[in-house]
Every structure is written in C-alpha cells, then in structure tokens.
Amino acid sequence: MSTYPQRVADNILPLSLAGTLPEAFGEWFFTDNVEDHEDSEEVCQLCDQEQLRYHFEIENRNTGGRLWVGSSCILKFDVQVFEDGELLDQGMARKKLESIKNKMRLDSCIRALELVSQKESNGILSNALKYYQKNKYLTPKQAFVVLWRLKEHSIDHSASFFKVSLKRNKYKDDLRDMSLSKVHVIWPALTSAQRNLATSFGHIPPKEGI
Ligand SMILES: [Zn+2]
Asked: Residue 12 belongs to what domain range?
C-alpha cells in the first residue's frame, strides 16, 4: 500500500506543471463548485479518504485539471480559496468552507421538510417548512413533529442538521415540559449546550446509539 503523501502526489502531480509538492498546490484553487451526495460514500480524489458526503471541486489554473476533494484537504494543502476575486487567508478560507457546508445542511433540511409536507397534509409540517425557510431554526415542538414524521415516512434526513432555538423562555418552558420520549426524538438536533439545559431540566440523555 502506498503512503499518504505518495497517494496525494500520485493524484495531483500528473495534473500539475510543478513536479513536486508542495509547489504543485500553488497552481490549485477552489472553484466554488460543491456537491452534497446525501450519503457519506464519496472518496476524496486527492488523498483517497472515503466516506465523504460533501465534495468540493478544485482546479489547476495551468492545466485545467479538476478534482473533487474533501474540504479538509483544501485547508490542509493550502489550496487557494477566493471570495470576490480576493485570496483568503487560512482562517477566512476555513470560515468560507464552513459556511458553504452550513448552507448545504440547511438546504438538505429544507428538502426533507418539503418532502414530508408533501407526504401528509398537516398544518404543523407546512408551517414548520415556512418557519425554517424564514428563521433557519425550529421551535422544540416543531422539531419533535418534524423529526417524528420524517422517521415515520422513512424520508432520508440528518436529524443533527436541524437547528432548534431555545432562545425564548417559551421554548425553554416547552422543552422542560416535554415528555422524555419526545425529548429523545429531538436530541440529535440539540447542541451540547442545549443538551446540558435539557439535562438540567431533569431529562435523561438517550443511551448511546439512539
Ligand atoms: Zn482528501
């Protein structure tokens, strides 16, 4: 088996003018093209890492060669990332890639919400869709109905991508008053701070793997 640096070199050098690393990476930039494959089954064409859900396209400005890679490789190998024609530093590049991923997660939640509200005519679901498009989060009660119905209809979704707001006191009260089984349904969508809050209300975290 070839080593990691060897695999990267084998993938990038034939598509670059420079014959060595890291010089070759100076020729590459992120094209802003991304793809959400829904399942984490894709391979990084740079390092051969598997189980990627998101592909980011990079291009060589000299040869026109293109590869679909993972965002971590863009950062690891200093592939250039631009915004409005300006080259971003490492920190800004990381932020840009993260916000692109957040956008893809949001879009995937919206797609799931659209599907589930087509499956059943339920005012809570159609309102939740409109609410999510507008606010980019659900209330705890909405989150319960949405995640429950998505599962019931076997609609592909990532529960952890949904965002739940607990900012208003009403939402905190709703979480406090929720039955434990309902809290467990929305658990994957809660942040660690929100999980701590739920625990402080006396809710017991679900067992691992749920
Ligand atoms: Zn990679």
From this structure: 4-80
Asked if residue 174 is part of any domain, the answer here is: yes
Is residue 99 within 8 A of residue 155, CB to CB? The reply is no
The total number of structural domains that make up the chain: 2
Distance 18 CA to ligand 1 centre (A): 20
119 shares its domain with 180? yes
pLDDT in tens, 93-117: 999 999 999 999 999 999 999 999 9
**How close is the Cα of 112 to the center of ligand 1, in Å?**
28
Same domain, 116 and 76: no
- 131 CA → ligand 1 middle, Å: 36
CA dihedral 7→11→16→18, nearest 10 degrees, is 10
Residue-level pLDDT at 1: 59
Note whether 171 and 114 are same-domain residues. Answer: yes
All residue ranges of the chain with pLDDT < 50 are 210
Backbone φ and ψ for 164, nearest 5 degrees, come out as -115, 135
Task: Residue 104: count other Cβ atoms within 10 Å of its Cβ.
Answer: 16
What is the pLDDT, as a whole number, of residue 5?
85
